[in-house]
Design brief:
By secondary structure, the protein is an alpha/beta fold. Helices cover 57% and strands 13% of the residues. It is built from 8 helices and 5 strands, in the order βαβααβααβααβα. The protein is globular and about 45 Å long. The model has no long low-confidence stretch (mean pLDDT 95).
Length: 202
């Protein structure tokens, strides 16, 4: 039986990473084989590209193409084989991030991003996407307390407001795939929502 593909999305600082391992553990406790991974990253090559993307200055087109190069390697080497073996894949970001960040945030060509997605994974989108929604100023405050900023996290509030709006538009367009989570809620409340939805996917 084919595994399920789950993605976690949201602007930097929204808190999604707090729940990833916990969610994967709930699946394991329910008897599921789980691959917990991330984008960009997840393979040796994709992690090398991630380091470039987070740390090196580059133009918007280079950034976009590197995102999809990392995604192709990740899908080919890890995600597709895992799903084919019945493993549930829980991924920290997927193409929705590219649409929100490189599309809405960078104000890039959304139609080109969708063309690349149709080329790289026309048959594969997440079964469920959890969107952690948080106002950009609050996310910025949280990030500043947590860690030094990478190249994306160093962007200004206006950039993240555009990213957030991009995510919200994606969620409105696909309400059956997205579950929007109020990231201002307590950890316990968020995990209750996740647990209830996770049970419905089984």
């Amino acid at each position: 039986m084919k595994g399920r593909f789950i993605s976690f999305e949201g602007i930097d600082g929204a808190g999604k990473s707090t729940h990833l391992e916990w969610y994967a553990e709930r699946l394991r406790e329910a008897g599921r084989a789980v691959l917990l991974t991330r984008e960009p990253g997840g393979t040796e090559l994709a992690e090398a590209l991630r380091a470039l993307l987070l740390g090196e200055a580059m133009d918007a087109r280079t950034e976009l193409l590197l995102m999809f190069a990392a995604r192709q390697d990740h899908l080919e080497r890890r995600v597709r084989p895992a799903l084919a073996n019945g493993t549930w894949v829980v991924c920290d970001r997927f193409t929705d991030s590219t649409l929100a960040y490189q599309g809405s945030g960078r104000q890039g060509p959304t139609e080109r991003i969708r063309d690349l997605a149709d080329w790289i994974h026309p048959d594969l989108w997440p079964d469920r996407t959890y969107l952690f929604d948080l106002p950009a100023p609050e996310a910025l405050r949280r990030r500043a307390q947590a860690r030094p900023a990478d190249r994306f996290e160093a962007e200004d509030v206006a950039f993240f407001e555009r990213v957030r709006a991009g995510y919200q538009a994606l969620a409105r367009a696909e309400p059956n795939r997205f579950l929007v989570i109020d990231a201002n809620e307590s950890i316990d409340r968020i995990r209750l929502v996740l647990a209830n939805d996770c049970a419905s996917l089984r």
